[in-house]
């Protein structure tokens, strides 16, 4: 999350001083041996108490291109209401190409509302709708619904079925100087733990009862926000709060209330004061009830010149965990430098640090095959030193390359459990883990009709107590393309490669290196008339039933086709 342009109020400064005075407790967990999924004792917990705040170096990549000269518009905030996550070797493969509806919106923004319906193999049904309206008085309403279900899957038919449903209702009111927003939402995922090993009795294969494999995640969301929208106001601010409640098919539940505040104040034409504050209150219920909170205050100053920008900040974070007996306060210096020697070529460097909040919801978004009562602990990014370059090369070419060297405490990974290999638990490196990341990206967009982006990341893990960064790739690459022809034909494609993923079967004590993943997808949308279009998508065209998670084969070649009506 890049630092927005905001202001520092007196009350926040006082809060920051109070934050700095809290006692410090550092957590480390060492999973020295595999554990049963229902036993927290499977993780060795070491608590180190200290009353002084440690000041290690730190970094976060705050390398946005500075404006050639400061102005009021450049100081407007960019909002990203989400937790900071440890995204190294992201275990999800999520195609990010435009959906047919989004492709239509680029060509015909006047008809933004739509209803879509489709079907495909694996007995798949798809339905989606979107509606928005606004009035001259500044009132806006937006509603959306999406349902995608496959009645059968890649293993034993209905035993690997899956269903996802999402409902959202949002509203906003803009007075000209202030904007109020709010929304409610509901998500539900229904799937099965189908990664079981083959079992035979009397020479016949035994298929488990699907009711014993069922998992259901239901999440209710509520959010409210307020921000200023006037261009001539001296102080720019945003305050947003989000409440979510998660429940699964067993006894696990998590309630999370997060509030995020951003503000900026222009001191001179070149210097802006900023403040970024978070408060997160979480209650997790499983075998036991646990209360986990995190508070963050990040005051900063940013100096911007035509060819140079520098940001200096102090990131103060306090975390508490009742179950693990943690009350830890850390402070991390933050520095980011961006130099523009010529044209649109940038060189950037910096250092950052943070406490990355890990919750049951964030872990399930990475690996939904989690076992009951997994241990939750935040990850401390002691420092991250980075540098690189990015820019526009002309003729539609752009690039970005960077290198990062980071040090973590409680660096986590996912691996199959000992008692049940169909489920995963979290393993933490209780020592210090170093991660070297090399990233490169090349983009090509000669006109508005064609875009192509090639990106690759290479990771090197130097771990202290874990044998491997279980479940995390060492190499990931993607190639994404989109093309439109005469605003009638829209084509998007993406190609993903993941390699170097290791997991361990603690029952057989066997380390498994998963085969390299190749995933090719294609989507086509064709306008049949002013309001009607047809779409078809092909996923996993290569038909590789790969395992992103050990013992979980994905669907082979699958397709989805249907009709969309816009209004």
Defining key terms:
567 residues; mainly beta; globular; disordered N terminus
End-to-end distance: 36 Å
Helix content: under 10%
Strand segment tally: 30
Content of β-strand: over 45%
**Discrete helix count:** 3
Based on secondary structure, the structural category is: mainly beta
Q: How do the helices and strands line up, and which of them pair or pack?
A:
Elements: H1 10-20, E1 24-30, E2 44-50, H2 100-107, E3 114-120, E4 124-134, E5 139-150, E6 162-174, E7 178-192, E8 199-201, E9 204-206, E10 214-228, E11 235-247, E12 253-266, E13 271-285, E14 289-305, E15 308-321, E16 326-342, E17 345-356, H3 360-366, E18 379-394, E19 397-416, E20 424-447, E21 450-462, E22 475-485, E23 489-499, E24 502-505, E25 510-513, E26 517-527, E27 532-539, E28 547-549, E29 552-553, E30 558-566
Antiparallel strand pairs: 1-2, 3-4, 3-30, 4-5, 5-6, 6-7, 7-10, 8-9, 10-11, 11-12, 12-13, 13-14, 14-15, 15-16, 16-17, 17-18, 18-19, 19-20, 20-21, 21-22, 22-23, 23-26, 24-25, 26-27, 27-30, 28-29
Structure description:
The protein is mostly beta strands and 567 residues long. Helix content is 5%, strand content 58%. It has a 22-stranded antiparallel barrel. Strands 1-2 form a two-stranded antiparallel ribbon. The protein has a two-stranded antiparallel ribbon with strand order 8-9. The longest helix has 11 residues, at 10-20. The chain is globular and about 80 Å long.
């Amino acid at each position: 999350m890049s630092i927005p342009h905001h202001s520092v109020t007196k009350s926040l400064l006082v809060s920051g001083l109070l934050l700095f005075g809290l006692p410090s407790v550092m957590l480390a967990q060492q999973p020295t041996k595999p554990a049963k999924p229902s036993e927290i004792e499977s993780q060795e917990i070491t608590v180190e108490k200290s009353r002084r705040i440690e000041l290690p170096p730190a970094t976060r990549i705050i390398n946005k291109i500075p404006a050639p000269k400061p102005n009021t518009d450049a100081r407007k905030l960019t909002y990203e209401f989400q937790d900071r996550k440890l995204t190294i070797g992201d275990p999800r493969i999520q195609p990010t190409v435009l959906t047919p509806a989004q492709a239509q919106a680029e060509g015909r923004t006047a008809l933004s509302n739509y209803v879509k319906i489709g079907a495909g193999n694996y007995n798949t049904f798809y339905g989606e709708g979107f509606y928005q309206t606004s009035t001259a008085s500044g009132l806006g309403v937006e509603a959306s619904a999406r349902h995608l279900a496959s009645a059968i899957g890649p293993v034993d038919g209905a035993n690997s079925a899956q269903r996802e449903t999402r409902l959202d209702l949002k509203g906003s009111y803009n007075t000209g100087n202030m904007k109020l927003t709010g929304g409610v939402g509901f998500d539900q995922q229904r799937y099965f733990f189908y990664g079981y090993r083959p079992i035979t009795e009397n020479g016949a294969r035994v298929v488990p009862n699907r009711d014993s494999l069922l998992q259901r995640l239901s999440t209710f969301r509520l959010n409210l926000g307020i921000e200023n929208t006037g261009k001539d106001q001296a102080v720019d601010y945003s305050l947003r709060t989000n409440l979510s409640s998660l429940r699964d098919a067993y006894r696990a539940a998590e309630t999370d209330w997060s509030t995020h505040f951003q503000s900026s104040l222009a001191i001179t034409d070149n210097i802006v004061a900023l403040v970024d504050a978070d408060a997160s209150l979480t209650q997790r219920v499983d075998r036991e009830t646990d209360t986990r909170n995190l508070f963050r205050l990040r005051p900063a100053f940013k100096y911007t010149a035509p060819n140079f920008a520098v940001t200096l900040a102090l990131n103060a974070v306090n975390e508490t965990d009742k179950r693990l007996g943690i009350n830890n306060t850390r402070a991390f210096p933050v520095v980011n430098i961006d130099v523009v020697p010529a044209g649109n070529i940038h060189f950037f460097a910096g250092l950052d640090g943070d406490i990355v909040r890990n919750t049951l919801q964030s872990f399930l978004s990475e690996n939904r095959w989690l076992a009951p009562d997994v241990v939750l602990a935040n990850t401390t990014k002691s420092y991250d030193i980075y540098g690189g370059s990015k820019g526009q090369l002309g003729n539609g070419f752009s690039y970005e390359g960077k290198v990062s060297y980071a040090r973590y405490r409680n660096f986590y990974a996912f691996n199959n459990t000992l008692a049940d290999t169909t489920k995963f638990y979290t393993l933490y490196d209780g020592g210090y883990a170093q991660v070297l990341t090399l990233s490169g990206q090349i983009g090509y967009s000669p006109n508005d009709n064609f875009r192509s982006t090639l990106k690759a990341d290479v990771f090197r893990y130097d771990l202290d107590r874990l044998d491997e960064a279980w479940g995390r790739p060492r190499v990931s690459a993607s190639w994404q393309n989109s093309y439109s022809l005469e605003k009638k034909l829209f084509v998007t494609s993406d190609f993903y490669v993941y390699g170097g993923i290791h997991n361990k079967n603690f029952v057989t004590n066997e380390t498994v290196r998963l085969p390299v993943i190749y995933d090719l997808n294609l989507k086509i949308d064709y306008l049949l008339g002013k309001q009607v279009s047809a779409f078809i998508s092909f996923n996993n065209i290569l038909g590789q039933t790969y395992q992103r998670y050990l013992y979980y084969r994905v669907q082979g070649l699958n397709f989805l086709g249907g009709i969309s009506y816009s209004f």
